[in-house]
Every structure is written in structure tokens, then in C-alpha cells.
Specification:
With 97 residues, the protein is mainly α. The chain is built from four helices and no strands.
Length: 97
């Protein structure tokens, strides 16, 4: 599954080099895992609302911006994919409403 366009993903991809394909693989794995987890949460937790996920996304943005010490390449890929998954999932959910 090709993750949708995301500013954070594109910003992150600019750092990729030819020998760094493993980052893209980790990005895709994380995006798919997060999306599956969000699907399960929505199906199994009747109290889960789109506003809850938006609050989590807001905190993810803060965490992404608080990278003063440097997370490293792996954690950057995971953070970018997690943000993209939340953005995508919230967008799809709002389109259904």
C-alpha cells in the first residue's frame, strides 16, 4: 500500500540516499502498522472519537518539533510514518462523516 502524500514524509524523504532504502522500508512498515492499529481502535473502542486522534496528532507534531538532541535516522522515519498515518486516517474518517 502506497502511503498518501504527506509533508512530513516528503521532508523526510529528501534526506534519503540511494543506499538508505531501509528507511523507506521502515517508513512503510510503520505506516501500515499504525493504520491497522487505528482501524482496530476505531472498530473496538466505541468511545474513540476523531477529536481524540486529532489530539494525539497534535502531540506528535510537538514531539517531532522537539528533536533538539536528534533522534537519529530510524526514529525520524518512524515519527514521519506515524504522523502520516494519523493524518491519513483522520482525513478518511472525516470524509465519511
Amino acid at each position: 500500500m502506497e502511503p498518501p502524500y504527506c509533508f512530513f514524509r516528503e521532508k523526510w524523504r529528501l534526506k534519503l540516499g540511494v543506499s538508505e532504502e531501509w528507511r523507506e522500508i521502515k517508513y512503510r512498515e510503520t505506516f501500515e502498522e499504525e493504520t491497522r492499529g487505528l482501524d482496530r481502535r476505531r472498530q473496538c473502542d466505541p468511545a474513540c472519537k476523531v477529536e481524540d486522534l486529532e489530539a494525539i496528532l497534535k502531540n506528535l507534531y510537538i514531539m517531532d518539533g522537539a528533536d533538539q538532541g536528534g533522534r537519529g535516522s530510524l526514529q525520524d522515519a518512524i515519527m514521519a510514518a506515524t504522523i502520516a498515518a494519523y493524518e491519513h486516517f483522520i482525513s478518511k474518517w472525516k470524509a465519511e462523516i
